[in-house]
Amino acid sequence: MSDGVAKHKVVIIGGGFGGLLAAQGLNKQPVDVTMIDRRNFHLFQPLLYQVATGGLSPANIASPLRGILRKQRNTRVLLGEVNGFDLAAKQVKLKDGTDIPFDSLIVATGSTHHYFGHDQWEQFAPGLKTIEDATEIRRRVLSAFEKAERSNDAAERARLLTFVVVGGGPTGVEMAGAIRELALHTMRYDFRAIDPAACKVIIVEGQGRVLGAFHESLSAKALKSLNNMGIEVKLDCHVIEITADHVMVKPDGGKGEAYRIDTANVVWGAGVKGSPLGKILATAAGVETDRAGRVPVNADCTVGSHPNVYVVGDLASFKGPDGKPLPGLAPVAMQQGQYVAAAIVRRVKGESPTGHFKYWDKGAMATIGRAQAVGESMGFRFSGYIAWLGWLFIHVMYLARFENRVLVLFQWFWNYVTRNRAARLITGERSADARSS
């Protein structure tokens, strides 16, 4: 670009995996980039369950966006909330009334919890998408043990020490395993009136096996590991009611009557849907979201008839070769972000398009507990200690900044040696004394 000529303006909404990789792909290119996010940090969501169980602190898995992008001279970061689009005028509308112009728009606002028409369950069964979710779950889990320590009612103790995880996918399996290890090892000798190891952890899964996206042999190994840890797994069952003191579970296919599980602790890991901004963008673009609230995109990640509007990551409904939407995984978002950045650069430079987006599936991994994991990649399947080490390495390398990698690696090493979880802090609810002081 010659001096005096306005550069191509790229606006990126969302600082998650897709948005961040898109911004980094535009570094040192002849464009001006504006990243907008409601939060001032990039969050490594796959490790939120470790925050929820006291293994890591929030700062271990989050990095300020300005710090990550500070060396990109063509990029600025804005803290703001988007509530509308004028695609004809090429403007993004912020909640505070500000309009941000763009030539190319990338929307990467991710997903949120999906309660399948039962949004009233959210107050009793929080999901795991934000730091606030993680610290709230941590508060509830740790508070349950504290309340049980003070209770003299055996039934109430049993209810407090029963943890139900809805969903047997990676999030549910990892969360259940972490809660069980927290009780079985970390806190086993911390209490006097109760034995934390006597707690019950139950997974309720609607399919016939846990980790349904994995090969059947790996699902079977994961189920065996869960059972060996003392975790109950109820397959082919659906939750039909969640209240403050119990859940109702109904077996599928008429295999039995609905039954009640008394519990004070429910974690939701059964489904996700696109962020609310997806519906707003879809309406502006003249398309309809799918049943999960995701925006359907073309083969080049553009939306409808708008060649300058892209959606990437969990918010995008991109159909793979099998006709099914790509999964909401970090590698999908990262590859789409990189692809879209390259496509914009080629268009700005007047070069031919890069072709359709093609996802390179490098495989999947899920950890179950200490030295226990399953994984598959390029036709190879592995489990146990090797899979667990691979899971550790990959997750450390995906962290955005070097200092986070060092902190997490050290914390994991210390946790492994001592079985301690140092971030077991009950926060988020002020006592009456604190409010009045």
What's the short story on this structure?
The chain is α/β, with parallel strands linked by helices.
Notes on the protein architecture:
- There is one protein chain.
- This protein is α/β, with parallel strands linked by helices and 437 residues long.
- Among the domains are: 8-38 and 80-113 and 273-348, 3-Layer(bba) Sandwich (FAD/NAD(P)-binding domain); 119-269, FAD/NAD(P)-binding domain.
- It is built from 12 helices and 25 strands.
- The protein has helices spanning 17-25, 48-52, 65-68, 131-150, 154-160, 170-186, 216-228, 277-285, 330-348, 385-398, 402-418, 432-436, and strands spanning 8-13, 31-37, 41-43, 62-64, 75-79, 82-86, 91-94, 99-101, 104-107, 111-113, 162-166, 200-204, 231-234, 237-242, 246-251, 259-262, 265-268, 272-274, 295-296, 302-303, 306-311, 316-317, 364-369, 372-377, 380-383.
- The chain has a 6-stranded mixed beta sheet. Strands 13-12-11-17 form a 4-stranded parallel beta sheet. Strands 6-7-8 form a 3-stranded antiparallel beta sheet.
- Helix 6 (170-186) links the parallel strand 11 and strand 12 (200-204).
- Helix 1 packs parallel to helix 9 (330-348) and helix 4 (131-150) runs antiparallel to helix 5.
- The radius of gyration is 23 Å and the shape is globular.
- The N and C termini lie far apart (60 Å).
